[in-house]
Amino acid sequence: MPSAVNLLKRLLLGRPLRSDRVAETLLPKRLALPIFASDALSSVTYATQEILLILSIGGIALLHLTPWVALAVVVLLAVVVASYRQVVHAYPSGGGSYEVVVRNLGRDPSLVVAAALMVDYVMTVAVSVAAGVDNVVSAVPQLYPHRVWLAVGVLVLLMAMNLRGARESGRAFAVPTYLFVVALGLTIVVGLVQLAAGNPPVAESAGWTIRPEEVDITGVAFVFLLLRAFASGCTALTGVEAISNGVPAFQRPKAANAGRTLVIMGILAIFLFSGVTALSMIAQVRVAEDPCDLIGFPTDCHSTGQRTVIAQVAAAVFGSGSVLFYVVQAGAALILLLAANTAFNGFPTLASLLAQRRYLPRQLHTRGDRLAHSNGIVLLGLVAIALIAAFEGSVTALIQLYIIGVFTSFTLSQIGMVKHWNTALADADRAERHRIHGNRLINAVGAVLTATVLVVVLATKFTHGAYLVVIAIPVLFALMRGIHRYYGDVRRELEPEPGDVALPSRVHSVVLVSTLHKPTLRALAFARANRPDTLTALTVNVDEVDTEVLRREWDRQGIETPLKVVESPYREITRPVIDYIKRIRRAGPRDLVCVYIPEYVAGRWWENLLHNQSSLRLTWRLRFEPGVLVVSVPWQLDSSHRRQVDRADRAPGHARRGITPPD
Amino acid sequence: MPSAVNLLKRLLLGRPLRSDRVAETLLPKRLALPIFASDALSSVTYATQEILLILSIGGIALLHLTPWVALAVVVLLAVVVASYRQVVHAYPSGGGSYEVVVRNLGRDPSLVVAAALMVDYVMTVAVSVAAGVDNVVSAVPQLYPHRVWLAVGVLVLLMAMNLRGARESGRAFAVPTYLFVVALGLTIVVGLVQLAAGNPPVAESAGWTIRPEEVDITGVAFVFLLLRAFASGCTALTGVEAISNGVPAFQRPKAANAGRTLVIMGILAIFLFSGVTALSMIAQVRVAEDPCDLIGFPTDCHSTGQRTVIAQVAAAVFGSGSVLFYVVQAGAALILLLAANTAFNGFPTLASLLAQRRYLPRQLHTRGDRLAHSNGIVLLGLVAIALIAAFEGSVTALIQLYIIGVFTSFTLSQIGMVKHWNTALADADRAERHRIHGNRLINAVGAVLTATVLVVVLATKFTHGAYLVVIAIPVLFALMRGIHRYYGDVRRELEPEPGDVALPSRVHSVVLVSTLHKPTLRALAFARANRPDTLTALTVNVDEVDTEVLRREWDRQGIETPLKVVESPYREITRPVIDYIKRIRRAGPRDLVCVYIPEYVAGRWWENLLHNQSSLRLTWRLRFEPGVLVVSVPWQLDSSHRRQVDRADRAPGHARRGITPPD
């Protein structure tokens, strides 16, 4: 089995990379943009739609407010991009928000940011994949019933690609991002030209009306609805921080390249988001949370979904069956995959950093076969799959859980940056002071704005699912603190002290015997080779007849080592052996007991079903006895060689790694 | 966790029994009858119904043939009982059909019987539990939608009871069997008295007609249908052989007591089967495979089931809501549980016998905590649950798979008995020869009749599901032969030969080091205590910085043992260590290499998630290297003591077994 798993792993993941090839995986800007900016750019595919969905609660009457909500989002986006440009320059080591906070605000706030970022990464993957599938379904409606499975399949593919390593993903993903930006940009330009030519695009849903929900939307409720629409539109800001977490992956000068990439990304995001929002107004796109609220919806509203806003806009501009429509949809679907991929770059790096600092299990710091942090990738993928399954792949349901994490880390990192500039002010000359004052202002504005949005998001989304995140972040926080405390305790417990190295006074070897065959004889010979002070062959009398046969055979073969029989009235194996060993230990508390257990090693998995596994249980139990060594004496059955040859033959890449087959 | 599992096990299964209490579990006739005869007696609850279901294919026109079919079944039953009475006397060791065949016909036929019997036991459990649930549902129709879960629950309960041991099941089950026999006997007597009094019982379905299936039922097809009805009626014979498998559980004189119990059982079975069949004719019970074929069926035929024949007869005689009706139904349900219980007695005994002779995995010969063969019980229960789930608890569907196994073992054992008497004739005096001739005649008639029935069953049931059994029996046969061959091969491979006991020339100890802490120092001390010829501390250079820290710490603490660093360009642990050890082995092929691996032992399961488990992989891989011993040096973290105290406190029964808590 493991050899087949190995083969599969190699086929999916390719050859392992040598450590000294780490430097090769650095990214030029043209590759870094698609990898790290895709998250922010892809938000364009759903941000407008989420604003429209909230405003539609009041029917079509409130849709005219869309541009104002979008404008607020654009202003916020510009401020956040400016703020993070400063983070990239001030902290180019790739710690991003986390590093800013840990350096300036201390441990506990940094763990809050870490928890928020982890939630954020998970949600990026889940939302992006779900939205990507929605756009595929908008182009190919027949896939609607299979969309959850489609999303799961895409996630598995993403995991496999990322387990192959960063560089290869970058290349494979660059083309589609540029495709998306160009295709959507073209849509916006053509749409605006059509408008200017007096022939504005008209969406398929332009004629429909929306049944308003029976809720009060006057006075305070109206303001609340507007704020909720704004909070939903803020999904356009997700992913802006990704570049600040990826600075070390940039080519030198890292910070400058990263900063420039961030600004390009900001401009593109604002252009695309504004353009899509404008076109959706021009073409009079209508969407509702439940398609059954759409009066005019042509097919059965229970078994089909609405097309995404992007799809409706592209169809209005280019025509529903046109090649360019499909290009836009393919671009949207692919950039959303890229966005998910951003998280697959960011999450394992963050987890590894936290694991190195002993806030997460150290398995997350283990570098895997292809320089990627395999365990983090797998963990992220599995949690995202679980979320997609739990929310049946609904973008609107998932998005409620999304932006709290994002704005928590935004806010804390901006506060951290303000503190950073305060510290910098202390030992700065006059010219610098002026510059620093300016920088501090940007971050201060960012902090105030993002904190305000965080409060708005919390207030408007809490009951719509965001409460789950409000629970998850403190749980993660407590978990990380607990893990840290645990590692600290263990480390203190294991700190060497004088006197620890005392040699045991005597060594007692005990060989466990069930029948007299080659494995037993080998175990006896190996035990004797270690020259113990005493050597005993121990058997448990579970069956009188078997024991008598063994005793007679022992005498017949003239084996020097005495055979000790312990009784077992309850036919247990483990308990009598443990009791016997405890008696030895009690007689000489500073003595060492070596327990030799003969074991069969079989080459085929089913053979293990045919051998009694009682030794496993005993081995497990003996680990809890101090001063006892468990020595397993493997006997390789003929079939085990077959297996070794198999492995050597099958594993690809061994030859070029200079590994010779076992002799 | 294991301590909680232990507690649960003790609560469900009770205290373990001492080996020397085996004798106490022998059964007197009054307890043996309910345990071993329940299978045969319980068949009465469905045998009549199965005949009616087949004849109903021709509508109500053919129902007048029921008594003739039943008569044929009764004759066969009498012959088989007489045959098995001879088996019990000739082979009182409890091997039953299997032993008769292995002694007289040789290995391969005996394995066919063994396979047939195993299938038979599984089907007994599945059919009996399904039929029991049907009778419960007949009394409480509200349970109809939950019948599969009910059946699974019952099976789990049966497993638990049998894991407690044979004696206690006998006591708990005696009352219901007698209840069933008395209650159903009373029904028959009262029904016949009512008939004699000119007031015959009338079933609720008496007025319904049956829509005949659109098949030809003239000429050959008519004969075929009759034979199929007869084959279905032969389910009344299932379980007759159970007593022959249980002779050793009887009190002395075992054979005589078992023979007498068999005859009592035969008389009861014939009386009850004939009575139920007669009453079903008198009361004009109507059943059909699909209730929708019943014209007059009062409720929705898709969501409700028919009442069983037993239930309809009891309702006709006593009235549907009467106390006695419920008593009959309770009796029927309970005796069917008892029938399932028979298999839980028989299957593990057979499996243990086969495992002892190395035809099945030896785990099936391990005696468990309460003298029962736990693994066999669990295996049987799980397969039966799978069958019930697969066939959605339908008795009629399951019963198609039932009697092929039964009649295969009937036929082969009767042929074996004929051969037994032939052998006995060789050295018998004149008086004996006469008796033996008579005995041989009985078994010969039995053989011919059961062989004929086997052919009939195969022909009439093959396409209705019996083909599954026709596949299963050869598969089991081949599996058992394969297992036997495998054990033979391994035994030959492990047979000690002269020269095997040679001591290794030199012992090389290698201590694996990742960081310098107490576990490492302990491993070094323990390795040194074994006085190896060479001692090396080995570390794998996965991370340059970590390795450098280790090297410096090693020097600082002045550790004598040299630290050997092996490179690992691919950041693997396993491969470089294996390569290093292979080099040692190549330099001295007769040398022994002891690999010491420091390990943490934690008391709480989640702690294992926080420690790197790479040593497990290495340990597994090292087992395949000849001449290598893996020595795990456990370091008991403080939490591990907590666990030990827990276990000692919690496990019930330790005090009365004289086991003191660990110090």
From TrEMBL, chains A, B:
Listed name of the protein: APC family permease
Lineage of source species: Bacteria, Bacillati, Actinomycetota, Actinomycetes, Pseudonocardiales
Chief location category: membrane
Pfam families according to UniProt: AA_permease_2
Organism encoding this protein: Saccharopolyspora oryzae
Transmembrane as UniProt keyword: yes
Keywords: Membrane, Transmembrane, Transmembrane helix
Transmembrane segments: 51-84, 111-132, 144-163, 175-197, 217-240, 261-283, 323-350, 371-391, 397-418, 439-459, 465-483
Compartment(s) where it occurs, according to its Swiss-Prot or TrEMBL record: Membrane
InterPro entries: AA/rel_permease1, APC_K+_Transporter
Membrane topology: Multi-pass membrane protein
Region (Disordered): 644-663
Top-rank taxon, per record: Bacteria
